[in-house]
């Protein structure tokens, strides 16, 4: 059975339609009109995505691979717009549209008092369209289109509050850092076209990559004379550089924490659940290519492991509730990347899916807290909120347990699978990665429970002060930290409903799907793993169902490490809040290193921003103005001076001219005489 | 329609229209309406050109030929292939928008300004339609005059310096071309481009001719290091002058490389392609950094134009190594098509960017970035257009700015990884200078009280920016009609490159 093309088109175009209507006619259709049309579009898209998934998994539908139209065709090079819908795509479509739908609903509450209400809905619907174009693509061109389009919407949304200097700095930074990644990505695509069969279509490229008569893995080229490199390594590393930008891997991670300048719903949707996982998805999609290069996978592994541990550490010292979650996202993206690096692509994608639910939940929960605190984000002015907002409190606990990998919750399955896969792998760098992901478990538990305790438990560290404060929900207004106009209260249902709906999969989705997704044949041939690299197959021998895995989990190292993190966090931030400050003093250098994010941002600012403008000024003043224009204006003034000298001869006095004539005559005669004599002699 | 001298109509309609506007345009309103009508009529005449041109057959079509100067065998010979058609339609389209755009800001000597614009349009079409080298040269030189007048009369305070620099620079370049053409005339006895292309030329002859053409066209494009006239000319030119200059006049340089350098001196082009490629790559990086630090919006976009036009020259000259060293005509076609699409796209994008700056200039009479900030607060529609064009300038997929750069990078990669890598650096530096501009002008709080009083776009400005936006998006979403239009012509040029002439 074939999937229906018109259904797939509707899935993509319905959010675009909503975005265009809300964007162009926002004033005329009003707030209700704008959120209705976009929610209807994304809702339709979500329902149809679920239907497509159903058809693929239970309805016996075969993979859909078809071009819609030709973008250009020059000689044998053609670029198309088309869809490849297999189970990997379908899963991504459901995750994207579901989280997007939740965020749309949530936004009704969160942005209720914002002037840019319609514009916001237009952007998030446009984002959904772009993300769907990315995941549903059947070729590299459209992949790149979606890739850049989500980047554009991310840019627009981080800078949504465009009056804030920090927001418009952050969105530019995000775009530029992503462009560094795209630089690699584009070269990777060019490499694919050149070396992988002269096509941009996935199916042709993958077929070429797996063709034993071609033996791409052995083909090499000398980019620098005398140093042959495998073309597969070059292409895969270039493609992965793209993923490092989009999925915020070290050293291109610097934009993601700053992206928190955007409104919280988009932090959940774009900078946690979907867009930032595009890199993970892309590498999983390209598994037939990455399997060709052991070197590239090692590179992926080391980058991922570094990101997983070292960005997590920064999360421990953050006080802004959103930034804690942001660093946690960085760290979890590192876990996914590690999974890719050990060829456990399904485990990476599996973690992508579970993470999308619980991390969207955590962000939306953080947003709910922020609303209650009148846009205060500093956890040092929170505490004890559990009695004011029970739904937010409980759902945040669920999200955090899932994140920390408590046995049975969604994150437990996906994270344990990654850790075990790394333990199983013999790839270069796997030892380092194993250390990082295990240590990361402790860190994850530490910052997760720290966040919960500082926000919901312990003493209230804010004052309700109705007289003095003339507050607004308007976050541009500054008010004294820790002072609230009225007591915090639970958010409206449009906010809490998405929390509850996201909490459910955060608990159960891992338990339900680990069997087929990791150890079954859910992905079929969407993901390709070389026989020798297949660590998940090794693990599969020991897998006896999800329930057994939960029981087994209690006896394993990750559980006890996470428990140690939980215990530490509980001791420090629940029972003995003074210890944290003492520890901070004792470990001053370490704390300062983490608080300054290893000084990487400062380094980039100095080298690339200030260095770039200095270089630009140098080239402009020194090159254009002095050298080039100097030469040109110089030649002009040379002519000028020359003519000034010549002009003096034309004095206008008759006796000057007469004198010159006589002089000339003498010279002429004398010269002729001299010449004549020489010739005669 | 086929037996009408369509190309002559396209050339002379605006030029005669210019005379009529001069004669009847005492009243500025009459001058404005009349010139729009002429421009629209020319645009309308370019529709049968597009429809009547047989893209599958390729070759020179709609040809006209009349003896012009018998003694020298100079002909008034016209003809178009797909490349010319694309550039002519770009010219007629942009001219309409420029004239509509100049309705408000130009309030003195309106009829003369409009007449200069129309005459310029006719001459530009003449350049793209001429198949006789001397006719080409006449249009090539003649178009300097209206542009000289436009900058010199309606320009800014330093217009005299700018016009002289502009004129002398470009005139100097074309002198070399003229010498080259005279040499070729002595060799072949005629001035037809086809005869020039078929003439057998030794390596040394080709080298001399190649550099003569290179100087002429490199100044026109302009390429690093002969680019410094452009920022000055743009800064002093009125908005309409800048738009025409960036959108169309620069394309004459790229077109010249395709029409003259490649067919007439293929062997020298191959030998010295590295010179052009190196100049292009330097432009991408060097000019990108220079653009980053400009305080004047027009200068910034002028530098950005130079960096973008580098993709045109890169795409054209990358073909030689691809054809002759790698025998890869597919990639060569991709590179050449990329260069052409980049020319068309840059016409839209730079035209739109200069129009955008004009909109602000009309309100505040300043081009300085620091005088603005927070324009989005008072002009949301304008801000949306500006961001769209900025994204096109960054080469965002879905806009026309992406298509050409993408093709050129893909093609360059097949010749040499490092050339592609340096070219792809535009992704980073292009985004940096463009988005920093957006950040400082469009976003942020309103700091200048005069900006706070700005009104959003009026209907006339809407038409101009909306039309550019439509063009940018259509080419970005569906470039195939454009590439199909030029495909057979590009193939012909690429195939011709395979044969050595020496």
Essential attributes:
heterodimer; A: 681 residues; mainly alpha; two-stranded antiparallel sheet; globular; B: 502 residues; two-stranded antiparallel ribbon; 3% strand
Q: What gyration radius of chain A follows from the Cα positions, in whole Å?
A: 32 Å
What is the H-and-E element order of chain B? HHEEHHHHHHHHHHHHHHHHHHHH
Most extensive chain contact?
A-B, 53 and 61 residues
Low-confidence stretches of chain B: none
> Could you tell me how far the N terminus lies from the C terminus of chain A, measured between alpha carbons in angstroms?
110 Å
Helix tally of chain A? 26
* Number of contiguous helices of chain B: 22
Distance between the termini of chain B: 42 Å
- Percent of residues in helices of chain A comes to over 70%
How many individual β-strands of chain A? 6
Describe the structure.
The complex is a heterodimer of chains A (681) and B (502). Chain A has 26 helices and six strands. Chain A has helices spanning 5-24, 26-57, 87-110, 117-136, 140-158, 165-195, 202-210, 231-246, 255-258, 264-273, 278-285, 287-290, 294-316, 321-341, 345-372, 390-404, 410-424, 430-456, 493-519, 535-541, 546-553, 557-575, 577-586, 588-595, 600-649, 654-680; strands at 64-74, 77-85, 220-224, 227-230, 463-464, 483-484. Chain B is mainly alpha-helical. Chain B contains 22 helices and two strands. Chain B has a two-stranded antiparallel sheet with strand order 1-2. Chains A and B meet through strand 1, helix 5, helix 6 and helix 25 of A and helix 12, helix 14, helix 17, helix 18 and helix 19 of B.
Short description:
The complex is a heterodimer of chains A (681) and B (502). Chain A is mainly alpha-helical and 681 residues long.
Question: Which helices and strands, and how do they pair?
Answer:
The complex is a heterodimer of chains A (681) and B (502).
Chain A (H helix, E strand, L loop, with lengths): L4 H20 L1 H32 L6 E11 L2 E9 L1 H24 L6 H20 L3 H19 L6 H31 L6 H9 L9 E5 L2 E4 H16 L8 H4 L5 H10 L4 H8 L1 H4 L3 H23 L4 H21 L3 H28 L17 H15 L5 H15 L5 H27 L6 E2 L18 E2 L8 H27 L15 H7 L4 H8 L3 H19 L1 H10 L1 H8 L4 H50 L4 H27 L1
Parallel strand pairs in A: 5-6
Antiparallel strand pairs in A: 1-2, 3-4
Helix pairs in contact in A: 1-2, 1-4, 2-3, 2-4, 3-4, 3-10, 3-15, 3-19, 4-5, 5-6, 6-8, 8-11, 8-13, 10-15, 11-15, 13-14, 13-18, 14-15, 14-17, 14-18, 15-16, 15-17, 15-19, 16-18, 16-19, 17-19, 17-20, 18-22, 22-23, 23-24
Chain B lengths: L5 H19 L3 H25 L8 E9 L4 E7 L1 H20 L8 H20 L3 H10 L1 H11 L4 H30 L4 H6 L4 H18 L8 H8 L2 H26 L1 H27 L4 H28 L4 H36 L10 H4 L1 H14 L6 H16 L1 H8 L1 H16 L7 H4 L6 H19 L2 H18 L5
Antiparallel strand pairs in B: 1-2
Helix pairs in contact in B: 1-2, 1-4, 2-3, 2-4, 3-4, 3-11, 3-14, 3-21, 3-22, 4-5, 4-6, 4-11, 5-7, 6-7, 7-9, 7-10, 9-11, 9-12, 10-13, 11-13, 11-14, 12-13, 12-19, 13-14, 13-17, 13-19, 14-16, 14-17, 14-21, 14-22, 16-19, 16-21, 17-18, 17-21
């Amino acid at each position: 059975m074939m999937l229906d093309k018109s259904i797939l088109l509707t899935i993509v175009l319905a959010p675009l339609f909503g975005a265009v209507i809300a964007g162009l006619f926002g004033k005329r259709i009003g707030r209700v009109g704008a959120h209705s049309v976009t929610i209807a579009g994304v809702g339709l898209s979500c329902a149809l995505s679920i239907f497509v998934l159903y058809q693929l998994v239970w309805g016996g539908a075969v993979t859909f691979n078809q071009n819609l139209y030709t973008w250009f065709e020059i000689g044998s090079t053609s670029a198309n717009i088309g869809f490849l819908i297999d189970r990997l795509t379908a899963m991504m479509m459901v995750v994207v549209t579901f989280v997007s739908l939740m965020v749309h609903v949530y936004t009704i509450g969160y942005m209720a008092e914002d002037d840019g209400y319609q514009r916001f809905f237009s952007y998030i619907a446009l984002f959904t369209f772009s993300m769907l174009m990315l995941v549903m693509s059947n070729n590299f061109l459209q992949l790149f289109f979606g890739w850049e389009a989500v980047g554009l919407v991310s840019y627009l949304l981080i800078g949504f509050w465009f009056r804030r200097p920090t927001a418009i700095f952050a969105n530019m930074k995000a775009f530029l850092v992503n462009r560094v990644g795209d630089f690699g990505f584009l070269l990777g695509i060019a490499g694919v076209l050149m070396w992988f069969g002269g096509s941009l279509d996935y199916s042709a490229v993958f077929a070429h990559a797996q063709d034993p008569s071609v033996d791409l893995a052995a083909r090499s080229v000398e980019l620098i004379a005398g140093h042959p490199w495998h073309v597969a390594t070059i292409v895969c590393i270039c493609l992965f550089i793209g993923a490092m930008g989009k999925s915020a891997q070290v050293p291109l991670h610097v934009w993601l924490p700053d992206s928190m300048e955007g409104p919280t719903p988009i932090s959940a949707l774009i900078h946690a659940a979907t867009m930032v996982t595009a890199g993970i998805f892309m590498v999983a999609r390209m598994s037939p290519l990455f399997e060709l290069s052991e070197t590239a996978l090692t590179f992926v592994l080391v980058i991922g492991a570094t990101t997983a541990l070292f960005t997590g550490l920064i999360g421990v010292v953050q006080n802004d509730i959103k930034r804690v979650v942001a660093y946690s996202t960085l760290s979890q993206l590192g876990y996914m990347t590690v999974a890719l690096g050990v060829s456990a692509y399904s485990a990476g994608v599996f973690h992508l899916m579970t993470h999308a639910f619980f991390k969207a939940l955590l962000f939306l929960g953080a947003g709910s807290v922020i609303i209650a605190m009148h846009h205060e984000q500093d956890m040092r002015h929170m505490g004890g909120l559990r009695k004011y907002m029970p739904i937010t409190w409980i759902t945040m606990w669920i999200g955090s347990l899932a994140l920390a990998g408590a046995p049975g919750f969604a994150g437990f399955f996906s994270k344990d699978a990654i850790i075990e896969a790394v333990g199983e792998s013999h790839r270069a760098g796997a030892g380092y990665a194993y250390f990082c992901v295990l240590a990361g478990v402790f860190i994850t538990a530490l910052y997760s429970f720290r966040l919960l305790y500082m926000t919901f438990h312990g003493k209230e560290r804010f004052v309700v002060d109705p007289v003095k404060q003339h507050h607004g929900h308007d976050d541009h207004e500054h008010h004294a930290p820790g002072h609230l106009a009225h007591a915090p209260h639970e958010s409206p249902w449009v906010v809490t409903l998405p929390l509850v709906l996201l909490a459910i999969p955060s608990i159960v989705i891992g338990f339900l799907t680990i069997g087929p997704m990791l150890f079954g044949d859910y992905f079929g041939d969407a993901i390709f793993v070389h026989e020798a690299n297949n660590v998940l197959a090794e693990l599969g021998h020991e897998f006896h169902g999800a329930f057994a895995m939960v029981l087994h989990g209690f006896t394993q190292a990750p559980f006890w490490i996470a428990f140690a993190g939980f215990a530490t966090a509980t001791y420090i931030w629940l029972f003995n809040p003074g210890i944290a400050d003492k520890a901070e003093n004792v470990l001053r250098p370490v704390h300062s290193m983490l608080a300054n994010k290893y000084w990487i941002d400062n380094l980039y600012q100095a080298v690339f921003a200030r260095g770039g403008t200095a270089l630009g000024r140098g080239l402009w003043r020194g090159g254009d103005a002095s050298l080039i224009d100097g030469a040109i204006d110089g030649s002009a003034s040379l002519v000028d001076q020359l003519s000034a000298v010549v002009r003096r001869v034309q004095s206008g006095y008759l006796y000057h001219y007469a004198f010159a004539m006589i002089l000339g005559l003498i010279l002429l005669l004398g010269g002729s005489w001299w010449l004549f004599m020489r010739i005669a002699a | 329609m086929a037996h009408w001298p369509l190309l002559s109509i396209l050339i002379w309609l605006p030029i005669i229209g210019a005379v009529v506007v001069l004669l009847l345009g005492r009243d500025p309103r009459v001058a404005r309406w009349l010139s729009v009508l002429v421009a629209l009529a020319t645009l309308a005449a370019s529709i049968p050109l597009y429809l009547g041109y047989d893209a599958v057959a390729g070759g020179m079509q709609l040809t006209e030929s009349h003896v012009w100067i018998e003694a020298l065998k100079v002909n008034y010979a016209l003809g178009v292939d797909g490349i010319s058609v694309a550039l002519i339609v770009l010219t007629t389209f942009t001219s309409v928008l420029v004239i509509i755009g100049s309705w408000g800001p130009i309030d003195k000597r309106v009829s003369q300004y409009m007449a200069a614009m129309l005459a310029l349009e006719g001459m530009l079409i003449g350049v793209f339609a001429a198949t006789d080298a001397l006719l080409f040269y006449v249009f090539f030189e003649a178009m300097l005059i209206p542009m000289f007048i436009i900058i010199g009369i309606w320009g800014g305070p330093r217009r005299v310096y700018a016009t002289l620099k502009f004129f002398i620079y470009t005139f100097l370049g074309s002198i070399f071309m003229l010498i080259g053409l005279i040499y070729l005339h002595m060799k072949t006895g005629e001035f037809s481009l086809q005869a020039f292309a078929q003439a057998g030329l030794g390596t040394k002859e080709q080298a001399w001719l190649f550099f003569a053409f290179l100087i002429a066209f490199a100044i026109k494009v302009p390429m690093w290091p002969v680019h410094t006239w452009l920022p000055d000319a743009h800064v002093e030119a009125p908005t309409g002058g800048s738009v025409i200059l960036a959108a169309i006049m620069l394309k004459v340089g790229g077109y010249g490389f395709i029409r003259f350098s490649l067919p007439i001196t293929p062997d020298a082009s191959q030998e010295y392609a590295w010179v052009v490629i190196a100049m292009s790559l330097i432009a991408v990086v060097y000019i990108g950094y220079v653009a980053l630090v400009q305080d004047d919006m027009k200068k910034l976009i002028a530098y950005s134009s130079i960096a973008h036009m580098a993709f045109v020259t890169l795409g054209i000259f990358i073909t030689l190594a691809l054809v002759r060293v790698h025998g890869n005509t597919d990639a060569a076609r991709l590179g050449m098509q990329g260069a052409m699409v980049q020319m068309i796209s840059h016409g839209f994008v730079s035209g739109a960017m200069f129009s955008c700056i004009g909109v602000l200039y009309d309100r505040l009479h300043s081009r300085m970035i620091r005088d603005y900030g927070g324009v989005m607060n008072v002009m949301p529609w304008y801000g949306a257009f500006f961001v769209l064009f900025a994204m096109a300038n960054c080469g965002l997929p879905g806009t026309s700015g992406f298509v050409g750069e993408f093709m050129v990078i893909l093609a360059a990669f097949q010749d040499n990884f490092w050339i592609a890598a340096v070219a792809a650096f535009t992704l980073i530096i292009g985004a940096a200078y463009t988005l920093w501009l957006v950040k400082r002008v469009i976003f942020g709080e309103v700091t200048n009280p005069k900006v706070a009083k700005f009104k959003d776009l009026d209907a006339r400005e809407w038409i101009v920016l909306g039309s550019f936006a439509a063009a940018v998006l259509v080419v970005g979403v569906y470039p195939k009609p454009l590439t199909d239009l030029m495909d057979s012509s590009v193939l012909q040029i690429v195939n011709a490159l395979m044969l050595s002439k020496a």
